[in-house]
Design a protein that fits this description.
- By secondary structure, the chain is α+β, with helices and mostly antiparallel strands.
- The chain has 8 helices and 18 strands.
- Strands 6, 7, 8, 9, 10, 11, 12 and 18 form an 8-stranded mixed β-sheet that branches.
- The longest helix has 26 residues.
Length: 364
């Protein structure tokens, strides 16, 4: 009887398994539905480094002209306005992880295949890591300094124009937030208002957040930690959680667009998602995590940038299998050349507003 099998590092197996890992990791990754190549994604994939050499992509933006213009036969020469341009950069680097078996005797003792379990373990690991990248960079979680958890580059903290706290101000530090400053619907209203009124006349590079175009409708997306969701749902005040339940989240929209998948609800054109990896606050003096505070993340389009290294195919993962100790032990590694960051121009956030509120674990 003839059998079809793939040995260690067989070219067909490498290509197949590398594609499997990336595909399955994206399916498991919570953030994957918000990442894509188009400009109507929360995180936009830039393709320059996936098509050629280089480790940095520079992204330009042109600000709107603000001059008053010249009426009638007034002299225009000498009254021209210079274009204002700003740049942002996303850097890519390699990140790898591996699993190694104990040997053939170890394999003999268990009823599962080490190679398959290694693949599944790396899928879970990569899915979690991409989620950490997404939430840490968008929230500006500077308490995490290990760039392996922040998109292979340093996190940039929120600027004061794109930051709200539980008491409705912008000046209160995360470490000064008290248990009276919990998340409520009014914070969403304030985000929507702020998103539409940011004005570059206040600071060069300051522009309104651009909503995401979903089936012809303009929407924002907001990520809340589980503790913030609990505070929102148990708020006994009038016009709170009930308003979300009455919102127009029709079945057609939910079924046709992945951004609605798993959503808590919609309020004031903002789709709400619960995400346990929404990070803590950051102490303004020490830079340490403030564990009783969470930073909700309000996003428009192009809030972040992502890029990959060139690999010559749809798969973004490198899958390598090695035999050690006279072919007794199997090692499997999986690597990715990529980078992710929050979009900023002239040191100002472009598509995200953070909302820091008191959010502690609730005891039964």
């Amino acid at each position: 009887m003839s059998l079809t099998s793939y040995g260690v590092n067989d070219p067909k197996a490498v290509k197949l398994w590398s594609k499997k890992v990336f595909t399955e990791a994206l399916k498991t990754c919570y953030a994957s539905r918000f990442i894509g190549k188009g400009s109507d994604n929360v995180v936009q994939i830039m393709e320059e480094t996936s098509k050629g050499p280089g480790d940095t992509i520079t992204v330009p933006v042109r600000m709107q002209l603000t001059g008053a213009g010249v009426q009638g036969d007034g002299t225009l020469e000498g009254n021209e306005e210079a274009l204002t341009m700003f740049n942002d950069k996303v850097v890519i680097d390699q990140l790898r992880h591996a699993v190694r078996s104990g040997g053939k005797m170890s394999q003999q003792r268990v009823p599962f295949n080490v190679r398959n379990e290694a693949k599944n373990g790396l899928v879970d690991w990569w899915a979690g890591r991409l989620d950490y990248w997404f939430f840490n960079v968008l929230a500006g979680n500077t308490a995490v300094t290990d760039t392996r958890y922040t998109g292979n580059q340093a996190v940039v903290q929120p600027d004061s124009n794109h930051r709200l706290v539980g008491d409705g101000t912008v000046g209160t530090a995360d470490d000064a937030i008290t248990n009276t400053m919990k998340f409520q619907l009014s914070h969403i209203d304030k985000c929507v208002e702020l998103a539409g009124t940011l004005d570059q006349s206040t600071a060069a590079g300051l522009v309104p957040l651009r909503p995401i175009n979903i089936m012809g409708e303009k929407k924002f997306v907001m990520f809340l930690h589980d503790y913030q969701v609990y505070d929102l749902r148990t708020n006994a005040g009038s016009g709170q959680w009930l308003d979300i339940q009455k919102a127009a989240m029709t079945g057609g929209q939910i079924s046709k667009n992945p951004i609605y998948t798993g959503a808590l609800g919609e309020y004031n054109n903002t789709i709400l998602h619960k995400a346990p990896r929404v990070p803590t606050g950051v102490n303004s003096t020490t830079g340490a995590a403030v564990t009783t505070v969470r930073r909700a993340i309000f996003c428009g389009a192009q809030a972040g940038l992502m890029a990959f290294g060139q690999d010559g195919g749809p798969s973004k993962m490198d899958w390598v299998e090695e035999l050690f100790d006279y072919k007794n032990q199997l090692g499997v590694s999986c690597g990715l050349i990529a980078g992710m960051k929050k979009t900023q121009f002239n040191s100002l956030d472009f598509g995200v507003i953070t909302v820091s509120t008191y959010a502690a674990k609730h005891t039964p």
